[in-house]
Amino acid sequence: MSFKGDVAQIPLSNILQALLLNNQEGILTLESAFFRQNIAVLKTGLRILNFNAKHPDTLKYILVKDKLLTESQFQNIFSSWLPGSSYPGDFLISRRIITEDQVTTRILHQIENLVLELIVHPDLKYEFTAHADTTAFELFSPDVLGKELILSSSAVLMESVRRDDELRRIKQLIPLDTEIYAFTNKRTLSSNTLDINQECLKEIKPFLNGEFPIGRIASLSALSIFETYQTIHQLLKRGLIAPLSTTDKKLLAEKLRKSFREQDAIETLRSVVQSEPNDTDSRL
């Protein structure tokens, strides 16, 4: 059995619920204008898969996102890997590039973030193929470490709704992903009473120097879009960060341009235009 559709007509969460209620197993393929992703739908839950059987694209994305490897390091390591000879994640463990502990902590966290973002993605086409063999697309051996990477379907669906609701509320206060923030008080960040996820805070601190828009922070850091917005919102509520003024953004754009960071300069001016639509001087 196979069927396909568009989440614009039927939300992905509804599709997953229907598959789970009917005890269906197979591969759910998701596609947008920017990426393609496979997910194994199992009676025990959901497990992320590579899309390309010959090039472990999802594994590369996760490892680079979490900064366990750079893209060039990943390419160099896998230049000696023969597709089908071993699972790509097991290959990395056998070469001591990553550890089993990293798989069940950091990599699992990135997998959770990826699946949660996919479920609420507004622009996806999907295709489900029942009883499809997942072997060629698995990140790790499904009988060993792969068992540790199965996500509870009900937990994922509930968390996706919670995150989506919270992100909508946050975006009412921070509507633009081009907004740029800088610290106003770094001393308080070391306080043990600061009720903010310390891992998220540690990851985001280097990017809150008044040069990076929110969207860029989410792409450059190990944080998901939700974690990025949530952490910035918490810091903003406590008065620890503040958005750059229009004047400061223009000065920043000029500084970036002189440093030959043309793309960053363009993003900064885009932030000015989006926050100040009547500022015709900054239009490109």
**How would you classify the helix and strand content by structural class?**
alpha+beta
Give the integer mean of the pLDDT values.
91
Please trace the helix and strand order, writing H or E for each element: EHEEEHHHHEHHEHEHHEHH
The best one-word shape is globular
Percent strand: 5-15%
Report the radius of gyration as a whole number of Å: 21 Å
Instruction: Name the poorly predicted regions.
Output: none
What's the helical proportion of residues?
A: 40-55%
Number of helices: 12
Main β sheet profile = 5 strands, antiparallel
Report the span from N to C terminus.
51 Å
Strand order of the largest sheet: 1-5-2-3-4
Number of E strands:
8
What does this molecule look like?
- It is a single chain.
- With 284 residues, the chain is of the alpha+beta class.
- The protein contains 12 helices and 8 strands.
- The protein has helices spanning 12-21, 57-65, 71-78, 88-94, 100-119, 145-148, 153-173, 198-204, 214-220, 225-237, 246-258, 262-275; strands at 2-6, 26-31, 36-42, 45-49, 125-130, 180-183, 209-213, 241-243.
- The strands form 2 sheets. Strands 1-5-2-3-4 form a 5-stranded antiparallel beta sheet, with helices on one face. It has a 3-stranded antiparallel beta sheet with strand order 7-6-8, with helices on both faces.
- α5 packs across α7, α7 crosses α10 and α11 (246-258) packs antiparallel against α12 (262-275).
- It is globular.
- The mean pLDDT is 91.
